[in-house]
UniProtKB/TrEMBL annotation:
The keyword Hydrolase does not apply. Pfam families: Ribosomal_S24e (PF01282). InterPro entries: eRP_eS24_sf (IPR053709), Ribosomal_eS24 (IPR001976), Ribosomal_eS24_CS (IPR018098), Ribosomal_uL23/eL15/eS24_sf (IPR012678). It comes from the Eukaryota. Keywords: Ribonucleoprotein, Ribosomal protein. This is 40S ribosomal protein S24.
């Protein structure tokens, strides 16, 4: 019956690959090849604005990451530092990231301060503690920021 056919199993696919002359790929090799193919991350900035009063650049950051759950904030800071030629990555703050339904795309906000002093002056204390620039009076716990 043609409607009861199942797709070929992995063993059958491996046998077909060996008969074709190419060596079969192991599970690890195929997983690594898939991971390399899906690691392309695209950054787009929208609503870019230079705010001279607060000594910073501010923007909406769209991250397109097909095949990945999300991108770490440290990786985003590193990529933004390269693109905008920032000397100190501690001057970059990214926050409020939300992954869109279906995955593959996230949006959030980004701030790039001109120097660390202006970041300490204008950034909220909880964000400074989050990146270990500021200090809390009760230790390094975020819960003690009342």
């Amino acid at each position: 019956l043609p409607y009861l056919r199942f797709p070929p199993s992995r063993a059958a696919a491996a046998a077909a690959a060996t008969s074709a002359g190419s060596p079969p790929r192991s599970e690890v090799e195929s997983a690594m090849a898939d991971a390399k193919a899906t690691t392309a991350v695209t950054l787009r900035t929208r609503k870019f604005m230079t705010n001279r009063l607060l000594a910073r650049k501010q923007f909406v950051l769209e991250v397109i990451h097909p095949g990945r759950a999300n991108v770490s904030k440290a990786e985003l800071k590193e990529r933004l530092a390269k693109v905008y030629e920032v000397k100190d990555p501690n001057c970059i703050f990214v926050f409020k990231f939300r992954t869109h339904f279906g995955g593959g795309k996230s949006s959030g906000f980004g701030l790039i301060y001109d120097n660390l002093e202006s970041a300490k002056k204008f950034e909220p204390k909880y964000r400074l503690i989050r990146v270990w620039i500021g200090s809390s009076s009760h230790g390094a716990s975020l819960r003690c920021l009342v």
